[in-house]
Structures are given as C-alpha cells and as structure tokens.
Amino acid sequence: SFDDKIYCATEDGIGIIDKNIKFDEQVPTLQFENVKVSGRDTTLLDAYNLNQDQNNIQISFNSIYYNNPESVKYKYKLSGLNIDWIQSDQTYVQYPSLPAGKYRFFISTKSLNSKWSKTQSIEFKIPFKFTETILFQLLRVLLIAGAAIFIFNLTLQNREKKRALKVSQLS
Predict the structure, then answer these.
(1) Where does residue 88 fall: left (phi above 0), alpha (psi -120 to 50 degrees), or beta otherwise?
(2) Fewest 10 Å CB contacts: which of 20, 63, 138, 140?
(3) Pairing, β 47-49 against β 120-126
(4) Which strand (E) or helix (H) includes residue 13?
(5) 85 near 75, Cβ under 8 Å?
C-alpha cells in the first residue's frame, strides 16, 4: 500500500523503500581480540594449556556491526564454572582466580533485532597440583593404611615377645 512505502528522489529516478523491512536484522560478526593470561598478552589460540599459577584470565572480544554499534549485546559462559549464560554489553570478561580444571569459554553476540550469532569458544586447561590429584589421595590412603598395619604388627610382635618371655621365665 501507499502508506507502507517511502518515496525519495535519486539521480537515477524515484527510490522506493518499504517501511516494513527491518534493517537491523543483520547478525554482528563476532571475533576474539585478545586473551591475557596473568596480565600478559598471548597469541590467540583455540585451546590453552596453562600452568597452575596461570589462572588469571581475561578474554577480550568485539563485534563488527556498523549499523548501530551501541545495540550490540553479548552472552557468554565458562563451562566448568558457569551454568547459565551471562548477558552483557561489555567487550571483555575476566576470571581472576580460576581453580584447576578444564574450561570452555562460549560467547555469542546479537544486535537489537537480530538473532544470536553462531557460538564461538576457547578452551582452557589448568592442571591440578600434585596434592590435588587422585593419585596423591590414593598414595596418602595407602601410606596411612600401611602405617596402621605396621603399628598393629609391631604391637602384636611386642605382645608375642612379652608372652614368650613370661613362658620362658616360668619354665
């Protein structure tokens, strides 16, 4: 209909724009900009195998979207730490003290009227200290059990020696 259109003059003739077209449906292009580990810039990788003391992580990202950059929103979560998605308009996330474990950072972006973009991710692995491993716990249990068995056997031997000494004194 006539009311649903905007007519404008151009050098090539009359331009017609449909008012019902939503121009802000384009999904922004998401990109990781930077990953800092313990305050230091790193090379962007799909996966990071870190040391135990490298548990302060900052992830910076951005969206390329020229129509209305202020309308861009992000949602992210760190699997292994977050259960729910967190929505924000900030372009970075910091995890200052991650415990040992395996994590995957997921992020998606959208503009005001668009759908969420395809999710992108980065993996982080922070090893456990030896004292936090199952092997250490098993060794600790075995050591305690071994010490208990040793003390029990030593006590039995002492009792047996005392009994043998009494028998020899009586004869």
Answers:
(1) beta
(2) 20
(3) parallel
(4) strand 13-18
(5) yes
- Identify which of 45, 42, 31 has the alpha carbon closest to the alpha carbon of residue 104: 45
Residue entry with tokens 């998605």: 85
Q: Cα–Cα distances in Å, from 72 out to 69, 88, 114, 157? A: 6, 9, 10, 78
Both tokens of 51, joined, read 């040391």
pTM of the model: 0.67
* pLDDT tens sequence across 9-34: 888 888 777 766 665 577 888 999 99
The DSSP output letter for 126 is E
Tens-place pLDDT, residues 22-74: 655 778 889 999 999 999 998 889 999 998 889 999 999 998 877 777 888 99
Whether 67 contacts 111, CB under 8 Å: yes
